[in-house]
Amino acid sequence: MNIDYTKELVLVEGNPRLADIDEIITRPLTQPPTRKFYIALSISGAALLIGAYSLWLTLYYGIGMWGNNIPVGWAFDITNFVFWIGIGHAGTLISAILFLLRQRWRTGIARFAEGMTIFAVMTAGIFPVIHLGRPWLAGYLIPYPNQHLLWPNFVSPLLWDVFAVSTYFTVSLMFWYMGLIPDFAILRDKTVDKIKKTIYSIFSLGWRHSNRHWRHYEKTYMIMAGLATPLVLSVHTIVSFDFAVSLIPGWHTTIFPPYFVAGAIYSGFAMVMTVLIFVRKVFDMENIITLNHLERMAKVMLLTGSLVAYAYLMEFFIAWYSQVPAEQYDFWARVVGPYRWAWYFMISCNALIPQLIWFKKVRRSVTMLFVISICANIGMWFERFVIIVQSLSRDYLPSSWHMFTPTLVDFGVLTGSFGLFFTLVLLFAKTMPVISIVETKSVLEGSQPSVHGGSHHE
Amino acid sequence: MNENKVLHSVAALFDTPDKIINAARKVKDAGYTMFDVNTSYPVHGMDKAMGLGQSKIGYVTLFFGFAGAVFIFLFMGWSMAINYPYIVGGKPFFPYQAFIPITFEVTVLCGSIATVVGMLAVFFNLPFLSHPIHGSNYIKEVSVDKFGVVIEAEDPLFDKNKVFEFFKNLGAGKIEFIYEPEKQAIKILQPKFIVFLAVVAALTSFSTYFTLNKLMYIVPFNWMDNQKKSNPQSETNFFYDGYAMRTPVEGTVARGFMPYPFHEQALPSEPLANPTLPTKQILKIGQEKFLTFCSPCHGNYAEGVSRLMGQFPPGPTLHSAKIIGYSDGMIYNIITNGQNAMPSYAYQIPREQRWAIIDYIRVLQRAQNPKPSDFQAIKELNKESGKNVVN
Amino acid sequence: MSSTEIGYIRKELPEKIKTIGLTLFVVGTALGIIGFLIDPQRASLSYLVTFMFLVSIGVGSLFLVALEYAVGADWSTPFRRISEFLAAVIPFLIILVIPLLFNLKYIFPWTHKSIVDSSVMLKGKTPYLNVPFFIIRSIGIFLIWWVFYYFIIRNSRKQDTTKDQYLTKKNINISSGFIPVFGISITAIAFDWMMSLEPNWFSTIFGVYYFSGTVWCALAALTLIVILLNEHGYLHSKIKSEHYYTLGLLMFAFTVFWAYIAFSQYLLIWYADLPDETIWFMHRWVGGWKVVSLAIVFTHFIFPFFYLLSYNVKMQAKKLKFIAIWILCAHFLDLYWLVMPGMSTNGYQYSFSWMDLVFPVAAVGLIILIFKSLSHKYNLLPIGDPKLQRGLDFHL
Model-level pTM? Predict the structure, then answer.
């Protein structure tokens, strides 16, 4: 394919009119659910039920139901937490960072990714709480003047996590809702159903497409993007501090913050890609979520996957270079130790497989991208598993080494987390515009006045 | 038509972004101020065409973000270093480095909440569902693919027909008159509403009661009340005698406990020697304990004048020659075992403090019977420091 | 070609610039040679600081060029040529490194057998930290950079006359290949030339730390030159405040990125409190270095952050020019702070030397000379680039 570099890539294919955009995007909302939708929902619902049952067992009998032990006090629980928080990062990255970088191809995927951020953070938020053992005591993490006259320990990275994740959730939710307001207004004006109209009216807050509002709205969107960008970096940075401020070999290394952020973006993009490939197929949105979108996302995955590979390299090199025996042993144990299978998964899925994206053929093949994105998800889960479980099970003292074996309940909770996430995603896709109507309209060919340079720039 | 309704505004629809930009510019140039452009997405260059400047909302973010940062930083410092000073992980009381992550998060949180809420509630005055424009055909078309401009009736230059002509000349597709909605009196105290309130109140109270008194005490939320162990002072069928508590084995000596060899013996005091030195610190302890335990009967200066005012047999003065003549061990024995009406203080006063009290009693005795050399010493001290040391 | 349909009119830079550059270069070099004769150790370290600064400008600029190709950015196309000229420092690095290679014994403790033998740690590191391998690595990396520089720049220049779109495609491929190579090589350079000054110390993030400074510095150099040239009409009338704004925004972004990386490194070492690691920060806190460390925090983060936060600053050429110079100085100070405190022979004390200021003068002179001679031969705008028109039309 020859590209004409004097022109920008077309973002919306098929040259639709403004009214068509409304039609395409709101179609899933107006039509009754199809059989495919029910099948998908029942699968995710079943997974959710498995998770709910496992969670009930955990709460009723205590976390002895899990395979956690001493020294492996963190296992599936924290692995899942870090994994889901990581998934959440792509949404904000797409909506905020790509917005600031004026990457207009984000319009087709931003809303969906933002929604996934919120659901992923919700899913992630469950894990640190249930891992407390007595989750109803989690309220003590909030600094309020309590009856014990004690404040939380502000020096602990675990408390930083509380602040980071709750801030991240709040800001993402506001950002998401803010983008939805004008879309709700469009739906409100479009629908004839009275109940729907009432709901849309309430959520659109009486938005009236006024340009006097757009003026502040665009600025606010910019500011929110500006705030969300460092925020998204800070969240996984702080998650990485949970590990890196300690002295456990394999945890205490200074590259952790950017390394975790890169990994988070990598896994997040993989998950967005997995889900979008489905959505564009199921809801006929191939013109809006084009192959170009997928290709660009693949490139981001290649970049972040390579950054993760760079971090692996640095870790190994410095572990040797530091000449600290415990560090050296820990990294050697990753390759030849009892958890080496997890490490092989991690290396092949995160560092090697994404390198296929270098080839244009792979980048433009939906099947290949789907496979790669699934691999990336698996690889990133195993990365957290390797970091957490492997390092804890091979501590400084050989006498306290201990293996971790997951139980059925562990797997049940993991399954349930996927169930929760996908149930929420499915419901979202059916009830709200999964692509920003407003933004898609504003990047359409001919939607901007010609005196201002056509539709070329935001 | 609609003769008795109040006109809110006149609205015109245009087909293309170029036309709406042009229309907005013309409306502005015609001198209208209370007009607005409605487009379902932001049209670039419209702010300029309408004569709107830069949005100032950034200052809201800046102010609240900064306020949040300062507040949380000081708050963390206060709670960790002043309110409950606490060393964690060998870090200083005020580990400002460790406060940076949370300070950052709170900055973002405050800044973004203030910006969004401020924009929606203060700048836009939303929610505003009863705006006359809602429900008109005009907004329905704007929502899809048209571009609209409205001039409000409150504009000083407004004239219904003139505006109509003006829009027509601009090439508007459709022109619509938008009327104020009829005012409807809202009755708050409708029976339906009161019933609704009552139901909400009942539900809230019940669920609160249920959660706090029932739910939180069932398994697994039983706050560890229900554990498989026997509490002290309770019954158990585990032991033959039915007591949950066990008595120690004969001859058991508790940790940190030294048996007193002269338990309930009046004398002898020979092997007992005072292990303390009458330092300032010891005397301070002695004074405190003397005032607490001894002075009620023996008086504040051990002069035997009781505060009890005859409700209890008065304690003797400790300045008698007999008691001055007692050895330290003798007094210790009396405090430990008690004597006559005086009970044992072994359980109230730990050993070291008993000795400290004895040191203090010696000081009181010496103060009552000073030697000439003491006066000399005080004089020298006074001279040295230049003031009256004794007082 | 003096003018094109794009509206670029080529003007020759005044000869005065050459004189200035030559004067600075000659004076700096002469004083530098004197420095090497008087105190070879101090001179070597001072020279190293300036050398790293040149590496920052050279390879950082090449990275910016590659980045533009790889991500398909158009706004920066009108001044890509400026970065290309700055990247012309790269071929000189191979020559400039020679004085350092002859003075390795003054710079790196691990070159002394007695020091290595006294430490188990250092002995273990000898497979990596030994003189022959060190020299091979450095020269090899400079050569690789030079190869990439040669191909990217050649294609870009060829396009001025041929206007062949295929060259853009080719450069996109080369640039995409360069970025991972750059990532690894800049890390190796940072480890070799700066981290191994204190060979017991290690930090996995150190390569990223130097990278963040490199790009920041290259951006500042680009901004400064673009504004200087454009103010006097050497570039294009369509390059306006919105382009400046984007440059300012990027500088702001990298200010924050650097702070993020620096803080991550500091916090993790401070929190874990391991003597092996904290010693590096101790050397930068005691013996008079405290002031320099605090100055880094201020000049490298606090001031540029608050200055560039404002929308108006980023739109104004004059203010951006000021902050660009500030950033260049701050990056130099940062390198100084990375290199100098490791000097163990003076008991880790801070001491000022006139030599610290001599080498940067020569470096500035060198950059001016390179720039002048290249601008004499080539257009200041990549007039054949298909993205140029889009770049000139760029607006926010």
Answer: 0.85
